[in-house]
Design brief:
CATH superfamily of the largest domain: Periplasmic binding protein-like II
CATH architecture of the largest domain: 3-Layer(aba) Sandwich
CATH class of the largest domain: Alpha Beta
Number of helices: 14
Strand content: 15-25%
Distance between the termini: 14 Å
Oligomer: single chain
Helix content: 40-55%
Strand order of the largest sheet: 2-1-3-12-4-13
Length: about 325
Amino acid sequence: MFKKAMIAGIALAAFATVQTAKAEMPNPLTFGIISTESSQGLKKSFTPFLDDMSKALGVKVKAFFASDYAGVIEAMRFKKVDVAWFGNKSAMEAVDRAGGEVFVQTVDVTGNPGYWSLLLVNASNDKLNKLEDVLKCDQSLTFGNGDPNSTSGFLVPSFYVFAKNDVDPKKCYKSVRNANHETNALSVANGQVDFATNNTESLSRLQKNHPDAGAKLKAIWKSPLIPNDPIVWRSDLDKGTKSVLKGFFLSYGRLGPNAEKEKKILAGVSSGWAPFEESSNAQLYPIRQLQLFKDKTKLVNDDRLDKDEKAKKIADIERKLEVLKVLSDNQLAIN
């Protein structure tokens, strides 16, 4: 109850500055959308929400699509994108490389605290039923990996499926190709690859939009929980613009006479969202830890490196992990 009241207070205070901030706000304001599926599907999903944002902010809001996650990251880096929806891994890259900053977090419409990475196979394939069935390094399987900047499609399975089991996909499978979640799922359903990465949110959306294909899929592995997706703005936006943007996001679907209508619009965005919650770069700590654990595991298993050089690099990673642990513990104590 206190958290909801605090969010509402932030939203009201921020929106009170809307008139003075409009002069500094980019016009048009460009909103980046990562390529989890076809741009046509994403455009249909996001347009009602972006139209409402445009009306509330008093400026044109333009959607930006790219063929891969890196395209949205680079667009933010070169100030072609002002605000963007990212996954946690791509948000981390945007923060580190493109001057981005997390300010709010999406919320799953069903109430899930996050989502899960999956490995999908064709439901008719009776030879692939569990994780161990795809870990045989005999180059007999074709694999659909995710975008390299995807959390659930790439980073999470890279560590939990491959690094922890000392499996190099490029060496162990007949072929490996990278694609977005929708393309990977359809490729499995259509028999174009034997297995592929995905996530619970994208699978749910696919089952709704492509029920015949969805019925042909089964999951043989599910990851630990992944935090909900962040919304990132350019950190160099002026304070007034940031205040109004945060006010819009935190009030949308919560405050005003159109709150119920706005909730329905959010429920149709991506895999289905509920009103946003405040967030910060701190939500990326677990993802940073995961990336470092993955890097450390790769180093430990690399016999080509000089012994002293390997020890130095591992020690450097362990120092970074210690710092992140302290930061994460402090964040948990605050929450």
